[in-house]
Amino acid sequence: MLGLMQDRPLALPHMFHRAEQLFGHKEIITATAGGGERRITIAEWAVRVRRLATALDRLGIGADARVGTFCWNTAAHLELYLAAPCTGRVLHTLNIRLFPDQLTYIVNHAEDEIIFVERSLLGALWPLAAKLPTVRYFVIIEDGTVGADLPDDPRILGYERLLAESEPFAGRFEIEDENTAAAMCYTSGTTGNPKGVVYSHRSTMLHSLISLTADGPALSERDTVMPIVPMFHANAWGLPYGCLLAGSTIVFPGPNMTPKAILELIAQHKVTLTGGVPTIWMGALPLLDDYDLSHLRALLCGGSAAPKALSEAYREKLGMPLLHAWGMTETSPIATASTVRSHHAAMTEDQRADVRARQGQAFPLVDLRLVDPDTGEEVPWDDQHSGEIQAAGPWVAREYYKGEGGGAQFTEDGWLRTGDVATADSYGFIRLVDRTKDLVKSGGEWISSVELENEIMAHPKVAEAAVIAIPHQRWVERPMACVVTKPGETLTAEELLEFLRPRVARWWLPDAVEFIDEIPKTSVGKFSKRQLREKFAGYTLPETSS
Question: Which of 86, 206, 265, 401 has its CA 20 to 30 A from that of 472?
Answer without folding.
Answer: 265
